[in-house]
Specification:
Elements: H1 3-23, E1 33-37, H2 41-47, E2 64-66, E3 92-94, E4 98-104, E5 110-117, E6 120-126, E7 135-140, E8 146-156, E9 161-171, E10 203-206, E11 209-213, E12 231-236
């Protein structure tokens, strides 16, 4: 090839390089996994059950941070909203033995899966370093009764990172009234408490009447909300 032709070929290659850079698609963003049932905090944001969550609405699978954190967002700089216990998260009524379901959009080799109840390790499942299925179910047993925050951690075996998901639950479906709301006499249920979380079927007393919750509610006074309000009046007690 003559020098003139070599220079022409080189010039053509240089001119084509920007075009190639434009038409080659970018690598897809990595994706990972989160708990969908019972609905984790990021699942509630994704489905709109809880509003104003920020970017986690679009990336429920991306709560990734170094192993060892005890925070709902893994302790990273993103998704801090998940750590806000006063956000109004929906509390799911579950049994003492309940199956937790992960949706894994990237199937990372797994060291183990851990479930913490109110900050204490309750149960773990060995991943044996294997690649999990897209759907992974764990039946967590022996859960203590009452209201709890469960932190689930998926520890990846071949990186320093883990994935985090917090689930707000009420084991056994019961509620504990605040100390300043003792059960009244006369066969009425416990007095309604503004800070207490209630789920469908829970009963309270208020203004001498018994009320039954139609669905999840907190801070909604019995008798408000009209015909479709959260409380059903069962009459005097």
């Amino acid at each position: 090839m003559t020098l003139k032709r070599r220079l022409a070929a080189l010039a053509a290659a240089v001119l084509a390089a920007p075009l190639i850079a434009v038409i080659v698609p970018a690598s897809p963003a990595s994706a990972h996994g989160w708990i969908t049932s019972p609905p984790s905090r990021q699942e509630q944001c994704k489905t709109g059950a809880v509003a104003n969550c920020g970017d986690i609405v679009y990336e429920p699978q991306s709560v990734e941070a170094p192993k060892g954190s005890m925070q709902c967002n893994g302790g990273g700089t993103r998704f801090g909203v998940l750590n806000d216990d006063n956000k109004g998260w929906r509390v799911t009524s579950i049994n003492s033995s309940t199956t937790f379901s992960w949706l894994n959009t990237a199937r990372h080799n797994t060291a183990d899966w851990q479930y913490y109840v109110d900050g204490r390790l309750h149960q773990s499942f060995n991943g044996n370093g294997a690649q999990p299925d897209e759907r992974v179910n764990h039946t967590v047993t022996g859960l203590p009764g009452g209201r709890h925050k469960i932190l689930a951690v998926w520890n990846v075996s071949n990186t320093v990172n883990a994935f985090y998901a917090c689930v707000d639950v009420n084991v056994g479906g019961g509620t504990t009234p605040p100390p300043d709301n003792p059960p009244p006499s006369g066969g009425c249920p416990a007095a309604w408490g503004a800070s207490t979380v209630y789920v469908a079927g829970n009963t309270v007393s208020y203004n001498g009447h018994k009320w039954t919750a139609r669905y999840w509610t907190q801070s909604e006074t019995p008798g408000t909300g009209g015909e479709w309000g959260p409380w059903q009046d069962n009459g005097a007690c």
